[in-house]
Amino acid sequence: MQCCKAKARLAIRLTPSVRFVGVDVQFKNVPSSYKYTGYYKKARLIDPESEPSFIPLKCYNPPQIDENGCLTLPVMEYTREARKRRARELWHEKVRKLDTVEEKIFELSMPRYYGWKTYQLGEELVMYDALPKTQYMTQTHIASEPGLPSHYDQILDAETIDATVRDIKDQVEESLVFEYNYRKQDYQFSLKELEDKTLQENIRTKAISEQINRILMSSLSMKYPHLMESQIDIDPRIEAFWFFGGFEVPPLIKKARKSKENSKEWADEPVNQQLQYKGKPILQVRHQLPLREIMSMEATKDTSWEIPVEDLDPRTVGYKKLYEHASIIPGFWPGDPNEFGLVSYHNMGYLHKRHETYEDREDAIKSQAILANFAWLYGQACYQGFSTFHNPTYPLVNQAVITNGQEWNFSVYQLNTTTMHIDAINENETRNMCWVTEPIKLFECIEDDKVKGFNDEVLKNLIKFYANVPQVREGVDMKPHLVKEKLVANIEDPERRKWLDERYKHLLSNRPRHRLVPEIYDWQRIYMIDNKTRPLDKRRDWWQFKKHVFRRRLDDHTPPYIPKKQREDPKSRKKWAKMYYPYVHPKEMVDPHNIKEIERPVQGEPEIVPPWPKHN
């Protein structure tokens, strides 16, 4: 009561033009979705005709004056949905406030000690009828007409392209003849591997792609200096992790909610689910500057660009779930100066394992193009300080080639959005864009060491890809969420720098833990859970203390022990080593629970003092 009275006295200081009527508002008059915090009063202006409004004396939002001149203090909503949303927003804000790229990615794994239960997506793991779901999982719209964007018609004129094709055509034909007729594989592989069509096609495709990339780089680098500055990665490791909130609630979660009285009404409440992509392109070319955008981000908010809604569980299509930590790697570690993609090459040998009767070859290639482009650009965006909770402030573009040596598919992808969690999936109108060409044959066949039916169109598209010059984004802050160190390598404290670097790389390796994941054995479920036959046994296991083993946080463990001979004086102190998990000081956080600052009103308006401080 003393606290409530003190708040009432403080409330009188709000403004001289507002007076409080000493009538307590009963709890039933307060909206049911608001938490009753103790002392509600009615307030109104001196004008008796003004209608009173409820004022909770304990609130976290600044008071406001509505159109009628009534003073209103908004109440924090305390429904389960609102509380959970504020908790998520607080975590999103923490990720944004972290200083380095590594810590932002590290923080995504912090809520789960044994990793997230993620849907496993792969470059060559394309399920049947997966194109609509792939578009939905990446929020990608495919251009209605096949072909490259019109922007590529302006990169080079026809005469320059034809002259370049004549210069490199003979070299490409020689490479094709050598790889198809003279490359011997007997000494490298076993008989079983030689009979594997998928493996042999991937090996041949890799060799052809590397040769064509070498020819184009050496022939065009004199005219286009940006190719001399680029970096080439062979067999890079591409991984991407993001939250997606557009799927239906998993059956096990729905069943668990319905089994409890206090959670039945939330059985269908959406949940965030985790997607993990793993790919391995043939090669990729990177540059210090990004490619020019195809269209502005405002233009990609066109709601007429429909995206199929496939909200069924991905396991219905064939994808599986595994416990893994969040790993985001675009083929290189943070700090590499060449951090933007130029072009990437991908295999398509997995199509040999698909039944031809389904006639979904083109859809499978489109699905592969979407996932491969999205994952690589998403990793690049994360290295710029963005994340699955924060959209990039500028678009990123990539050019991809999917081939088997004879058939070539070209695609261009523009990444505009990365936020697809449950709070943004229905509100975010931005679309990612993808342009895909029809399959083009490079040649018809090879006979008598000669290439028959050579198609110049493939080389023309490749030349356009390599001649597309990256540009500086004028007036754009490339890393708006990275302010201080930006990278772990820039941290001044050597102990913290070493700890974060080692833990970050170990976490992304996803090696299994030394100790196995705790489990409930069959005899325990039979004799101790289903049938209470051992009441005198001492409680020792985690499930007996009602702990959820998979909700354990990553930092929920004992720090490393420091032997006495390695401790600083006095020896009796500091027996535990320091740990440097991602941390943001509370003063730097924009906590929805904290009181917001209020600007002083202009002269002539009623003066409103900030809300009262918290009392101990």
TrEMBL record:
Chain segments annotated as transmembrane: none
Subcellular localization: Mitochondrion
Predominant cellular place of this UniProt entry's protein: mitochondrion
InterPro entries: Ribosomal_mL37/mL65 (IPR010793), Ribosomal_mL65 (IPR039982)
GO cellular component, as recorded: mitochondrion; ribonucleoprotein complex; ribosome
Keywords for this protein: Mitochondrion, Ribonucleoprotein, Ribosomal protein
Organism the protein comes from: Trichogramma kaykai
UniProt name for this protein: 28S ribosomal protein S30, mitochondrial
Domain of life: Eukaryota
